[in-house]
Amino acid sequence: MDSDLFSRRRAERFAQLLDEANGGRRHHVRSKADGELTALVEVSRRLTAEGPDVEPRAEFRTGLRAMLVATAEREGIGTPAKPATTGVRGALLPAITGRRARARGAILVGVAAGAIALSGISAASENALPGDALYGMKRSTERAQLALASSDISRGQLFLDFARTRLDEAASVHGDQLGFSAVLDDMDADTRQGVRLLTTVAAQRSDPAALDAVDTFLAGQRRVVSGLLDRPGHADRERTRRSLALLDAAGKRADALREAIACGLPTPQASDALGPAPAACPADR
């Protein structure tokens, strides 16, 4: 079975359904995937019609336009078709190429409309807190950012940004020990992921530059986490101290890696949740 062929057919059928939903001509065809694809079209329609009244940022519009232009160029949308060859295949090729170009173009339009609508929802969810209706969208947006990140350094920095966000959320929790602990669990998980990615890059490249982001993160995060302990009626001091201990361990790991790189030790073979675990430099170096 040619899965690529069937993927193209589904994409072209999805484009037809999008076209029909937007007032285009009806295509008198049916496919086994129509039920699933119709549901996706409905999601696209609802996102476009019911999205919150939030204007997408200028940088988002610029990035989206660049992505669509690059995709159009790669897929040949808007490019004149090559001269047809002779025979039946030559007679059919322009029509097939034209249909595929229109299908891909319609998909790009749908992606653009959906992305703009989603950007509005994402912007509206930025200040959502655990338990709010839009909190799930906020976390989904974070996962999308990670999926689009271009390198381990970018992903590591994103995880540390998310850990900062979880700390802001924890500071808003009052009198809910379970809720507070759950947010700190997520914060610590993001901290470990971010530190592990950045320390791994530093060790593999024998370059401590990636550790600068870890140091900056730890300085600010320690200060705010420590401040939680001084808050009247604090939900769970012991749980907060565990998060502080994790930050201390991350700081020690970053310091140890800097020393190992400076004295020319090879990339550590041992590793744990915080990334490579270097040996100590020899005393005679």
Q: Please state roughly what percent of the residues sit in beta strands, choosing from under 5%, 5-15%, 15-25%, 25-35%, 35-45% or over 45%.
A: under 5%
Q: How many beta-strand segments?
A: 2
Class by SSE composition: mainly alpha
Q: Helix coverage percent of residues?
A: over 70%
Mean pLDDT: 77
- Shape category: flat
Q: How many helices does DSSP assign?
A: 9
Q: Characterize the main sheet.
A: 2 strands, antiparallel
Terminus-to-terminus distance: 62 Å
Radius of gyration: 26 Å
Which stretches are low in confidence, meaning pLDDT under 50 for 5 or more residues running? 1-6, 112-118
Adjacency order of strands in the biggest sheet? 1-2
H-E order: HHHHHHHHHEE
Would you give an account of this structure?
The protein is an all-alpha fold and 285 residues long. 71% of the residues lie in helices and 1% in strands. The protein has helices at 3-21, 34-50, 58-75, 87-125, 135-148, 152-171, 177-205, 211-229, 237-262; strands at 271-272, 275-276. It has a two-stranded antiparallel sheet with strand order 1-2. Helix 1 (3-21) crosses helix 4 and helix 2 (34-50) packs across helix 4 (87-125). It starts with a helix and ends in a 9-residue tail after the last strand.
